[in-house]
Structures are given as structure tokens and as C-alpha cells.
Write a structure and sequence with these properties.
Number of helices: 8
Number of domains: 2
Strand content: 15-25%
Largest sheet: 7 strands, antiparallel
CATH topology of the largest domain: D-amino Acid Aminotransferase, Chain A, domain 1
Order of helices and strands: EEEEEHEHHEEEHEEEEHHEEEHH
Helix content: 25-40%
CATH architecture of the largest domain: 2-Layer Sandwich
Radius of gyration: 19 Å
Bound molecules: adenosine-5'-diphosphate, magnesium ion
Distance between the termini: 12 Å
Low-confidence stretches: none
Structural class: alpha+beta
Shape: globular
CATH class of the largest domain: Alpha Beta
CATH superfamily of the largest domain: ATP-grasp fold, B domain
Number of strands: 16
Length: about 300
């Protein structure tokens, strides 16, 4: 399989994200193409991580199929032969697209990210430590970093075009979207998270928190869109290394994070773009972790290996 820093397809490009390109297919469908780019501390690295794009796309595909009974989604197919058959314009590009392209229904996205937190980490831990709250709402005292939150919390965020998304309260979301839609989004988010968390637990993976996006299709149906329960949209922790009271190792990006944290400690990198050059062993270790996450979670070989 080819490693790909950025796709260039003969289709109208709607968006180039940190990791994925979004192409318009026919007005009603989109092609999401996950490159092998990786970001850490919000900076996109120069070196691609081999197989990462295929891992992300195939993890999302796995979940969309598995969760179909819980919530409608935008998923059509992530099988490369099927994508190629439906999109003659891409003839000859099979090698660079293999495993990484997903055909989806186009929707009008809901302008909030639906975050579910089952463990106290990241920006939520920071706010709780400083103020005892999450998005302004008080949380029970005495929690430590990475503690399990039972029941999980719904903590929506605004979609910031650049920079950091901002945590908001459910009340803020309801003021913008209405109570009815907000409740549907929250209930769907909880249901998908619970199903994902319970399944991942049987595979030795803790899904500590995750971000969902929803959109409305032309018929008015609310659908789960974007990527779902991937290491890029969620925190995956190895269950056998779980020790609350501090940060947890990340299943996928830990070799990269450790390397970058070391550079920052030594004053060799200031944490902003341009990124430092990554040594080959860091790239290889990160690639191996993504592949391991895929195999552990799905029990399947990656499409390109079949
Ligand atoms: N079915 C869909 N309909 C409309 N927009 C979608 C759909 N699925 C995903 N998107 C949008 O595609 C975009 C992906 O871009 P982005 O998140 O910036 O990429 P990345 O995750 O690589 O940073 C998001 O804005 C998301 O809302
Ligand atoms: Mg995104």
C-alpha cells in the first residue's frame, strides 16, 4: 500500500482538514479520504504515518456497520473495489486510495460537536482541576485525573474553524438548536458511546471520551457523520495499563507524544508549527500502534493485507 501525505483526486475538493480531504461526488454524496498525516499538540507533522489513513477509515467503517441498529449514519461503503466501481473518474488511483476512502451521504452538519466523556481527561480534567466544573456545570468533588465518570457526561463543543473547540453547556446548545434536537443528539451520543465502550472493553481498550458529529440529510433524517470512535476522534487507552490519578498512555500516538514532549522539555521545540523532523523509529512505532489498535479492536486484518 502506498503512503500518502495528501490526496489529489479529480473531484471537487470541499475541504482539506488536518488529516482528511473531503470531495464532492455528485451533490448527494461525499468521498472522505484519510491521508497518513498525523497531528500532535494541534500541529500536523511533516512525515506521514504508514497505514494510518487506512486504519482510521476502516475503524470508522467497522463501527458504522456495527452501530447501524442504534443510529442511522452517512456510511455507504469503504470497500475500495466498490468505491472504484462507483467512481469511474478515479480509474488508476486504486493503489493510493486503498483502504482509506469512504463514500458517504452528504448532509447538512449540526454546528456542534457532541462529546461524550466516560473518563475525566484532557480539557475536562483541566477545567475540573481549576474550577470543579465541566463546561460551567459543577462536577462531584474528589475526582482524580482519568477517573471513570459514571454515568458518562455529555459535553458538547462548538466547531471552531481554527484553534481550539470551546466546551459549552447543554443549555447553550439547546438555546441554539432547540430542546428537542439537543435531546435527540444527546441521547444518540450516549447510546453510541455506550455501545462502543462496551464492545471496546471486551477487546482490552478503554474509550475514555469521544467526539461525534451529526448531520441532517435531504429527507430530514438525523445521521451520524464524519469519523466515528477512531483514535483520532477519541482517547483510546490500553485497559491493562489503566491507573487513575494521572494521564494515561495513548494507544496510538504515545511514541509520537513522548518524543515531542522530550523535545519540548529540552527546549528543542516550542510546540508550534513548523514541526520538528521525526526520526524513523518514532514514525515506525506510531504506525505499529495504529495497526495494533485496528487489529485489537476489530479482530480483522486491514483491508490492504487481505
Ligand atoms: N456526511 C457528511 N456530510 C457533510 N459534511 C460531512 C459529512 N461527514 C463529514 N463531514 C464534514 O467533513 C469535515 C471533515 O473535515 P475536518 O474535520 O476538518 O477534517 P480532519 O478530521 O481531517 O481535521 C468536517 O467539517 C465534517 O463536518
Ligand atoms: Mg475533524
Amino acid at each position: 500500500m502506498k503512503t500518502l501525505t495528501a490526496s489529489r483526486l479529480p473531484l471537487p475538493l470541499l475541504r482539506r482538514g488536518k488529516v482528511r480531504e473531503v470531495y464532492d461526488v455528485d451533490g448527494d454524496h461525499l468521498l472522505l479520504v484519510a491521508s497518513d498525516r498525523v497531528s500532535a499538540f494541534d500541529v500536523v507533522m511533516r512525515e506521514p504515518i504508514p497505514r494510518k489513513g487506512a486504519v482510521l477509515t476502516q475503524i470508522s467503517a467497522f463501527w458504522f456497520e456495527r452501530l447501524a441498529g442504534i443510529v442511522p449514519s452517512h456510511f455507504v461503503t469503504a470497500s475500495t473495489p466498490e468505491v472504484m466501481a462507483r467512481l469511474p473518474a478515479l480509474a488508476g488511483m486504486e493503489d493510493e486510495l486503498r483502504g482509506r476512502a469512504m463514500l458517504v451521504r452528504r448532509t447538512t452538519p449540526v454546528p456542534f460537536e457532541c462529546v461524550v466523556r466516560g473518563y475525566l481527561s484532557g480539557s475536562a480534567w483541566k477545567e475540573y482541576r481549576e474550577h470543579g466544573t465541566l463546561a460551567g456545570d459543577p462536577l462531584r468533588p474528589g475526582l482524580v485525573e482519568s477517573d471513570r465518570l459514571d454515568p458518562p457526561l455529555f459535553s458538547p463543543a462548538t466547531k471552531a474553524e481554527s484553534g481550539h473547540d470551546e466546551n459549552v453547556t447543554e443549555a447553550t446548545m439547546a438555546a441554539a438548536l432547540g430542546r428537542e434536537l439537543t435531546t435527540r443528539l444527546r441521547d444518540a451520543s450516549f447510546a453510541v458511546y455506550a455501545a462502543g465502550r462496551d464492545y471496546a472493553a471486551t477487546r482490552g481498550i478503554i474509550i475514555a471520551d469521544t467526539k461525534f458529529e451529526f448531520g441532517t440529510d435531504a429527507q430530514g433524517t438525523l445521521r451520524l457523520i464524519d469519523e466515528v470512535l477512531t483514535p483520532d476522534s477519541s482517547r483510546f487507552w490500553p485497559a491493562d495499563a489503566y491507573h487513575p490519578g494521572g494521564p494515561q498512555p495513548s494507544f496510538d500516538k504515545q511514541p509520537l507524544r513522548d518524543y515531542l514532549a522530550g523535545l519540548r522539555r529540552d527546549g528543542a521545540w516550542n510546540g508550534e508549527a513548523p514541526p520538528p523532523t521525526l526520526p524513523h523509529d518514532v514514525v515506525a512505532a506510531t504506525s505499529a500502534r495504529y495497526l495494533d489498535a485496528f487489529r485489537r479492536l476489530t479482530g480483522r486484518p486491514l483491508e490492504e493485507d487481505r
